[in-house]
Amino acid sequence: MNLPKLAINNFQFTLVMVLLLTLMGLTSFFTMPRSEDPQVTSPGSNVVVIFPGANPEDIEELVLDPIEAALNELEDIKRINAVAEDGLMVLSIEFEAGSDADDKYSDVLQKVSGVRDDLPDAVLSVDINQFNVSDVSIIQLALVSNDAEYRLMEKTAERMKKELERVKGVNKVKTWAFPEQEIRVSLNWQKMAQMQIPLGLVVQAIQSTGSNIPGGAIDVGSRKFTIQTSGSYEAISDIQNTVIMARDGKVVYLRDIATVARDYEDLNYIARYNSKRAVYVTVSQQDGTNIYDVMDALKLKIDQFQDRIPAGIQMETVFDQSISVSSRVNGFFKNLLQGVFLVGLVVLLAMSLRAALIVMLVIPMSIMIGLGFVDLSGFGLQQMSIAGLVIALGLLVDNAIVVTENVSRFLGMGLKRKEAAVRGTSQIGWAVVSSTATTVLAFLPIIMMQDVSGDFIRSMPVTVVFTLLASLLLSLTLTAFLSSRFLRQNGKQKNGQNGFQRFVDTVYRGRLQEALDRPRRTLLVAFSIFLGSLMLFPIVGVSFFPKAEKNQFIINIDTPKGSSLAKTNAVTEYVENILENHPEVKSFAANIGRGNPRIYYNIIPKNQQNTHAQLFVELKSKDLDIFNVVVRELREDFRMFPGAKIEVKVFQQGPPVEAPIAIKLLGEDLDELKRISRDVEAMISETEGTINIDNPAALSKTDLHVDINRPKAGMMGLPLLEIDRTVRASISGLPVSNYRDNDGSDYNIVVRLPFDENHLGERKPAMSDFSNIYFAAHNGAQVPLQQVADIRFKSSPMTVSHFNQERNVTITADVDTDYSVNNATNIITEKLEAYDWPAGYRYYVAGEKESQDESFSGMAKAVLIALIAIFGVLVLQFRSFRQPLIVFAAIPLALIGSVLALLITGYSFSFTAFVGITSLVGIVVNNSIILVDYTNQLRESGKDMLEALQEACATRFKPIILTTATTVGGLLPLTLGGGSMWAPMGWSIIGGLIVSTLLTLIVVPVLYKIFTRKDAVAAT
What are phi and psi of 726, to 5 degrees? Predict the structure, then answer.
């Protein structure tokens, strides 16, 4: 290899290039975007259709089926989930990973637009939104007041919104939880019936008078004049003076049959912060921006705005993601610095001071250069990329250690420093390249994983690969040059170095000789240990991603379908009272009528529902033991609450999943699905550890059905459309036009009945209001609604759900902290297999199990690809098939250590543990490569096999042990302090590496002796 010689001879160029690359990385370190977690989302879209007044079955037939059929023509569909509820359809279409998200969004737009004209005319809106991770709020503010009017709170929130939108790096600012104002047109149906004025005439008059149609322009001589027509409404009095009709020489104005006034829409979303009425303001950041820069600018604006907040309104910070990001990033950098210290300590104890300093210089340079290329690849600093730095930390010094050790060996043989550096680095050069290549190849397939888990974790292997390649380049150039200048020719050996040599001479050589003398016994013992470790695998267990280990959680409240917002609010007040009196609770934000604005990347809040409320809770302490105690206490408090389901849900790491346990029941008949769902719900509830079980089909919903007597309506000349529209306008209100005031604010003009105040002081429709609805018959008679229709209660399905175009009911559940999701799911699956399924009905396991199977399948492919690629590199190096297989013996030896380490520490085989094992495939073969390569070199020099093995193992013992110790030292802080996310990965690598190293130093020489022909020497 000529690279070391070129680097030393042209050291000026070497130093300049290394400096430039390091400066590039240093610049990237300060400018890279920072976040808590990787910002990933799968390609897909949501289609939301609002169809007022329609029941779920009508929406399924008239809206859901045609949209599904159109979308099903698209390619690369992974899954389609859809739910039809009263007046609402939400469809989610997800495409295979790797699909172009923007192209797929355009395809969805095209397909839905193609069927838009075929949907019922009464469909109010069709919205299509692309999946977007940037919707996650980085800060949530609350404007709090129990006394201020909503109008004042709304104006204050809107002013703040305009201020914050001007901050650089802000993507979107939203205001929440105040009722929209509207222009209420309260119709007097009795008067309208007396005057024979149908609703359609009123709607037409308001729409035509309120429209603004440009009149064009006209040339008059040399001047051009714009023609202004009547224009839109300029004041509420204009709306009152709208001409409805003229009869018998008299004009009927809107004010003659209705009251027109500014009012609030029906309250459908209530927010409180620490039990006080609130409105929220949330901010999301643009992709690729640094959260610290954006947040600093935001906080400056917020501080400036404080002085302009009206008296009686306080501003509180509900959520600040930068605090969490700072804690996570600083924690990882702390682990990184601790790892640097441990690696440096190992190197200093085992090597001379000068050699140790040369090796340690590689650490910051490799990290900075690696970060530069990570930045160029489009990744930022978050837990995955920083964990990649920690993993690479222990590996990146391996090459420098091997190089400096070999150069020191040549210096000990009496060579000049420059010659020793060139020969020492060149001799070990291809072995170093091969060992780095095998490690890189182990991580490359993880980079190529195409599912959401692959997207989530991709920045970690990218960081490892770039950092290791940087360390390889530095080892063969800068380390070689520094060794030629600063290593002493006959430096004194440290006590640690003498200790190494004594151990090799007195202990290791003897054990190695015994193994070589009895090769079959040695292999039998190793194979038995391997089989024993495989038998322990079921005991260790399998999991996916762990809890997020935050001091925050959410509480979901669901009241029975058909419950009013007031009922849901009452349950929420009970929960708030519990939280307010809990000593560990710092703050809580309540949302009644919908979910809390999105503040965590894999939690998607529910849209508007009267039966749903969600509270975001933050504890004072960040201690996980205290957190778990509080969660258990609250679950026990809420477990038996009558008339509502209250669940405490902790944040989960990893890509979003529907629920830890999700069982989809597929079939056609809703009643049969409902019956089966109750049986399956019982199976899940009987499974130990399951909590927060949700069966959407458990209860029926009761609706008020307006049963129109069609023959009677026809005889009276009352069109069904007129009756339906009048009922909707009376009870729910019908937006018919818009009004813009002098401030430029737009308001809907809504026609409806005037409502009396109820016992709660609210103006809401009541059963008695049906008697106030009248129509004008063709003969001029007043016809009350109850004369042509009966109002009766009727049960109906709460929701109709589809999964890949089939009707389904999805039963979901969480699993308590002390239980395994995988074990619980397997028990439930066994029960489902034994269930007597009717013909045409089946189940599908979704949730965490589905994601786990997809991710582990991708990981298995990654391991297979890595093995094949590594084997190819080894065949190229050794020009043999036998010797790569000898090197591969280190892999099953590593599995022994991984299983034992996880069993002893109590962790299961999580996704990150499998990432660790995949990493081991490339890491553990390095020691074998060094042994086999040097043995081949010694045999080429004329030594026989046994002598070459003894000398190679004794010579390479120290660098092998040192590289293992530095890798373990680099990983130890992350393993001990990285929480349940990274501990399984750290222990799997540490355990596998230690056991593999110890056994490799014995087993690989034995295999070399058995499977290498005595007369054959592999070319190197």
Answer: -65, -40
For 333, residues 6+ apart whose C-beta sits below 8 A from its C-beta are 386
pLDDT in tens, 985-1017: 889 989 988 888 888 888 888 888 888 765 555
- C-alpha–C-alpha distance, residues 615 and 593, integer Å: 11
d(CA 451, CA 857): 10
The number of helix segments (H) and strand segments (E) in the chain equals 36, 30
Cβ contact 463:388 at 8 Å: yes
| Helical pair 925-940 and 945-977, crossing angle rounded to 10 deg | 160
DSSP annotation of 381 reads: B
475 vs 471: CA distance, rounded Å: 6
What angle in degrees, to the nearest 10, is found between the helix axes of 417-447 and 478-486? 150
- Residue 57 buriedness (CB in 10 A; 0-12 / 13-18 / 19+): middle
Strand pairing class (800-803; 77-85): antiparallel
Instruction: For residues 183 and 737, give the distance between their C-alpha atoms in angstroms, rounded to a whole number.
Output: 10
**To which residue do tokens 């809990």 refer?**
582
Q: Name the 3-class secondary structure at 96.
A: coil
CB 525 within 8 A of CB 533: no
For residue 260, give the nearest of 727, 742, 748 by alpha carbon.
Answer: 748
Bridge pairing between strands 181-187 and 746-752: parallel
Structure tokens at 3: 């690279």
Radius of gyration of the chain (CA): 36
What would the mean pLDDT of 863-883 be, rounded to a whole number?
83
Of 396, 390, 438, residue with least CA distance to 963? 396
Copy the structure tokens of residue 888: 């591969």
User: DSSP assignment of 476-528, as one string?
Assistant: HTHHHHHHHHHS-TTPPPPHHHHHHHHHIIIIIHHHHHHHHHSHHHHHHHHHH
Question: Hey, is 211 helix, strand or coil?
Answer: coil
Can you name the residues that pair with 243 across neighbouring β-strands?
253
Distance in angstroms (rounded) separating the CA atoms of residues 466 and 572: 51
Can you read off the two tokens belonging to residue 592? 């009644």
Largest CA distance in the chain: 125
943: enclosing H helix or E strand: none
For Cα atoms 231, 236, 238, give the angle at the middle one, nearest 5 degrees. Answer: 45
620-626: long-range contacts at Cβ-Cβ below 8 A with a sequence spacing of 24 or more?
A: 620/551, 620/584, 620/585, 620/586, 621/551, 621/584, 622/551, 624/549, 626/584
Overall average pLDDT of the 852-864 stretch: 77
Question: Residues 812, 816, 822, 826: is their CA dihedral positive or negative?
Answer: negative
Task: Please enumerate in sequence order all residues whose Cβ is within 8 A of that of 329, keeping only pairs 6 or more positions apart, or say none.
Answer: 34, 36, 381, 382, 383, 386
Three-state secondary structure string covering 857-920? HHHHHHHHHHHHHHHHHHHHHHCCCHHHHHHHCHHHHHHHHHHHHHHHHCCCECHHHHHHHHHH
**Distance between CA atoms of 296 and 279, rounded to whole angstroms?**
23
Specify the pTM.
0.78
Among 929, 932, 962, smallest CA distance to 948 is for 932
Whole-number Å distance between alpha carbons of 35 and 456: 13
Instruction: Give, in order, the Cα–Cα distances in Å from 535 to each of 225, 658, 896, 903, 914.
Output: 91, 33, 10, 12, 17
What does the pLDDT look like over 717-773, one tens digit per residue?
888 777 877 787 777 777 878 787 777 677 888 888 777 655 555 566 777 777 778
Half-sphere exposure (Cβ direction) of 684: Cα atoms closer than 13 Å: 26
